[in-house]
Amino acid sequence: MITLQINGLQVKVEKGTTLLEVAKFLGFPIPTLCHMEGLSPYGACRLCVVEIGERSNAKLVSSCTYLAEEGLKVRTASARVVKARKMIIELLLASSPQSKTIQDLAAAYEIRQQRFKQEYEDCILCGLCVRMCEEQMMAKAIGFRGRGENRSIGTPFDVQAEACRLCGGCMYVCPVCSLRCTYNEPEKAICGACTNLSPPCLDKEQFDDMMCYMDPCVACEITKD
């Protein structure tokens, strides 16, 4: 067993346990986009960063890939961690401003403006679809292509792979494809409607403590210009 400290709480975990698994077991919330139970950790989105070490030796690491170490001190929501996550979410919004998943993350972290130019590239290269196709569907029909700014996901020569069974698993796990928001204008990149602070579809007199039950939430559509 390994003994470490997370958010001031000393715990013992088995060797080979990731920091994300430790945090989830203890109930400390850590946002993720590229992580999913049953798939190998990838560490692409960096949203799950935590701070390890102390003072000048402290550094940020991805909790989904970093294994617990003896005597390690971990902070899952320090000022440095939250600042890094907000920056990452803003960058993700620039690539996929219509993703409800990313919109919800922006609302949860109280991001009110986006400082980066919207590119509308949609894919955030989280690799969930690639790992789902290879590890769960046993097909390897899609994969990464190119490097750097030319990196993308697809099939060789853009020809449909014979191994593809059209199961839809890649779309099911994609945080960009699963649900879409309606706003895509820069000044409305963060609409905030999906936080359901003022549910437009419920009678408050009858449901004073009930949040919106629509899935997906249609608040954006209702308030659309």
Key attributes of the depicted protein:
alpha+beta; 3 domains; disordered C terminus; 6 helices; Ubiquitin-like (UB roll); five-stranded mixed beta sheet; two-stranded antiparallel ribbon; 225 residues; Alpha-Beta Plaits
Describe the structure concisely for a colleague:
This protein has 225 residues and is an alpha+beta fold. It is built from six helices and seven strands; from the N terminus they run ββαβββαααββαα.
Would you write up a description of this structure?
This protein has 225 residues and is α+β, with helices and mostly antiparallel strands. The chain has 3 domains: 2-77, Ubiquitin-like (UB roll); 96-120 and 179-222, no CATH class; 128-173, Alpha-Beta Plaits (2-Layer Sandwich). It is 23% helix and 12% strand. The protein has 6 helices and 7 strands, in the order ββαβββαααββαα. It has helices at residues 19-26, 79-95, 100-108, 128-136, 169-173, 219-222, and strands spanning 2-6, 9-13, 49-52, 59-62, 73-75, 143-145, 152-154. A hairpin with a 6-residue loop joins β6 and β7 (152-154). Mean pLDDT is 82; it is low at 193-225.
